[in-house]
Amino acid sequence: MSKRRKDNKKKQQQNAKPETVPTNDGIENEDGSENGVAELTKNVEKIKISPRAVTGSLTSQFRSKDIKIEQFSLSLHGAVLVNDTKLEFNWGRRYGFIGPNGSGKSTMLKCLGEREVPIPSWMSVFLLEKEVPPSDILLYNV
Fold first, then answer.
1. pLDDT per position as a tens digit, 15-45
2. Among 7, 13, 41, 67, which is most buried by a count of CB atoms within 10 Å?
3. Would the pLDDT of 11 be above 90?
4. Strand order from edge to edge, sheet including 52-58
5. 58: in domain
6. CA nearest neighbour of 67 among 118, 105, 115, 116
7. What own/partner pairs with CB < 8 Å and gap ≥ 24 does 103-112 have?
8. pLDDT tens string 97-122
9. What is the predicted pLDDT for the residue at 21?
């Protein structure tokens, strides 16, 4: 083999992409980086996967201050907690849920707080899951 061919072969080997060991799925991105399980699991937190299944249709007027949801159903891990009922929250009223432990009170509040049911986008919804420790900071200073 001539010296010229050997030099060309060395250059080709230097410019060649190094071999990669495939991961469990063996998929590579366009840039050649591996697309393994570790990379995929990083994005799982971005996707909201809920163990709850919630259905219902908003029947109140769009700009109404009241919320009316008909055909509301809520299930958690396949167990039906509420089936085909009507929710109605009127402006200016306060509501509480009363029931035995494990009946779905917190689950229902979470599905309302995370807007898993149709609530108008202009309405503000806040869910306080636990008591906030006292502080000297005033709310209107925040």
1. 655 544 444 445 555 555 555 666 666 666 6
2. 67
3. no
4. 52-58, 67-76, 79-89
5. yes
6. 118
7. 104/74, 104/76, 107/52, 107/74, 107/76, 107/81, 108/74, 108/81, 108/82, 110/52, 111/52, 111/54, 111/74
8. 899 998 888 888 888 888 888 888 88
9. 46
Amino acid, res. 46: K
Number of domains in the chain: 1
The residues, any chain, with a CB within 8 Å of residue 108's CB and separated by 6 or more, are 74, 81, 82, 97
Q: Hunting for tokens 């991105």 — which residue is that?
A: 29
124 in any annotated domain = no
Residue-range definition of the domain harbouring residue 104: 52-113
Please check whether residue 109 lies inside any domain of the structure: yes
Mean pLDDT of 62-67: 87
Residue type, 114: E
Q: pLDDT exceeding 70 applies to what percent of the chain?
A: 64
Query: Is residue 74 a part of any domain in this protein?
Result: yes
Instruction: Name the residue type at position 92.
Output: G
Rounded-to-integer distance, Cα 87 and Cα 75, Å: 15
